[in-house]
Amino acid sequence: MESKAAAEMFEEWNGTASTKLTKTATITFTENEAESFPTSPSIKKSSSPFKQITSRILEAFLPEGFPDSVTSDYVPFQVWDSLQGLSTYVRTMLSTQALLSAIGVGEKSATVIGATFQWFLRDLTGMLGAILFTFYQGSNLDSNAKMWRLVADLMNDLGMLMDLLSPLFPSAFSFILCLGSLSRSFTGVASGATRAALTQHFALQNNAADISAKEGSQETVATMIGMAFGMLLARITMGHSLSIWLCFLSLTMFHMYANYRAVCCLSLTTLNCQRSSIILLHFLETGQVLSPKQVSTMEHVLPVWTTSWCSKSVNILHTRVCMGVRISSLNYRDLGELSHLAGSHYKKAKYLLLDKKGVINVVMHKDSTATDVLKAFIHALVMAKLNNQGRSVHSESQLWIDKHYEVFVLKLQSSGWRTERLLSPTVTWRANWLIPSSNGKFD
Question: Are 4 and 33 within 8 A, CB to CB?
Fold first, then answer.
């Protein structure tokens, strides 16, 4: 009589990260003593087919290795971002319906060439606007990703509003059409640029491409749902102007709120001018460095011009620092003071600081690096803080830099901050200075 015993066993695991694997099956072979190889494999499933299908569907929308492959603020941001996107697509159906009506779709008097020209004029204005916006603000988008994210969606709301207004003013239709296209062109540039910066922030395992691809899938689903609701809403409200405006304004308010909540969820680890100012002031008072999450609750994400009426307390010390000042824009007195400072307080520095009526002007050396720019900005912030107290700014600020700057940077790094560069508008103007030594020669 043949005897059988369990000989070998294999386990099947599924998952994209070694720490997040799920056992899906156990395969057991029964050994037959009369044969030289195991026979009768037995397969036992560890998870239900429904769970496996659900897991496969989620893989199309979540980055590989989720949640370990992304930052902790990824989920709340994506939830609010998807909700604001949904409201955008619903409103798009309402604004597009109004725009097509204004162009003359459905009217016998409308001509194809007339509608084509108006659409061409609309697109041309948008393309020119995108180029101009990139030229003037391209280098500033990285440094203020949160603010520009909000501004981008606000401009998109304005563009939709122009489309909805277009049927009400037939004589100014072309102007309103171009104004709406111009507004949306700013949205395209700012939204695309800030999205790239945020994707890099979320990527913990050099998986920015995967995160971007999965976000595309999430956006596609939101688009389809939004289009379905939008078409339904457009059909229900057709011919009822009051209902259209109530729906549009309600969705716009929700859209703005969802965007605000989305950017407030972000805990960026890069140092820009405002975050550096918040961290430094806290360090000067307590000797401790705030974490990215703590700073995110203190950061002002609305445009600067809202500071005057915003109830949230905002530190504006960084607005008193002007980086990359052009030497030829200074007067003779300022140049004379810079010459004196170069030979005294800033002999070893790759920058010069000039106090002009409470504003600290920073002149960068032509050989300065990204770390020099960060150090110059921190030095300027210290000087601006001392200026508030009416103290000797150059000597005391230099003493603080010599004594505390390296410790400050090390504490930044240990708290999770990236200190390789300062996210600020690009420093395009630099200078070179020659300092005479005691024997009359120049260094």
Answer: yes
